[in-house]
């Protein structure tokens, strides 16, 4: 008899929807044997989350949930305040890198049946603050990605591209402070003939189309966990320039056409961006993703193993 897993995540940052990569991971889990239910949280702050606890109890009982998989620290803490079924918690970066949130994540780690970190950097930070007993219930497992659709199936995004320019896709929204768009704008201003395109408000298919159409991806983030946009760009063969955040250096190590800066100096990043533009063709990123086992199918299989271990 198949088991029932409840996916818990915030709805606050994606216009009332789950983050797409959480849904894609859950759907991959569904394909290989678990029934999947969703529990989205739209409240703000600790109080807003705590108000969801009675409803969470009811859903777990009504849906006959066997295991909960929560994403991000505050959701993980809420999930663990019910003690009916075990909880697997995934921490994505901001819940570890921000000290005020890390305090809540630390409590969630103590209560969770299993903890998942998406990058070595975030795992290292967490390990500095938890006991040996907690470390025994931890795994390093980045989120996977779906293989991109082919170019011929992509929607037309040419109207977004200025003619006679090199098109640079920014790795996020300009108004997201963590993404540090001011630095990105400074970098692009030093590379003549470029257009910086904000990655905000597009469908998954349009994002893929932009990754095929652009000349490079630029990430200037202050912190990251294991950024999905990097893996997605790799899968589309898009050259990458990034600050040394999260697991970007590890993911792109040895991949021609991808560059990680040693500093946050705009001139250094501009020099690397010019190199990425001059690279002039697609990277071999998809092969790197597949060899690292970072397709959603591969990650889902590892998650099922964790679920089974917890349930046993």
Structure commentary:
It is a single chain. The chain is of the alpha/beta class. The protein has helices spanning 20-31, 45-50, 53-62, 73-81, 94-97, 99-111, 120-127, 132-135, 181-189, 204-213, 228-235, 248-252, 266-279, 285-291, 296-311, and strands spanning 4-10, 35-41, 67-71, 87-91, 114-117, 138-140, 166-170, 194-197, 216-219, 240-242, 258-260. Helix 1 links the parallel strand 1 and strand 2 (35-41). Helix 4 (73-81) packs parallel to helix 6 and helix 11 packs across helix 14 (285-291). The longest helix is centred in the C-terminal third of the chain and has 16 residues, at 296-311.
Content-based structural category: alpha/beta
For this structure, the quaternary state is single chain
The helix fraction, in percent, is: 40-55%
Discrete helix count: 15
Radius of gyration: 20 Å
Tertiary shape? globular
Strand content: 15-25%
In N-to-C order, the SSE pattern is EHEHHEHEHHEHHEEHEHEHEHEHHH
- Average the pLDDT over all residues and give the rounded result: 96
Q: How far is the first residue's CA from the last residue's CA?
A: 15 Å
Main sheet properties: 6 strands, parallel
| Largest sheet: spatial strand order | 2-1-3-4-5-6
What is the tally of beta strands? 11
Unreliable residue stretches: none
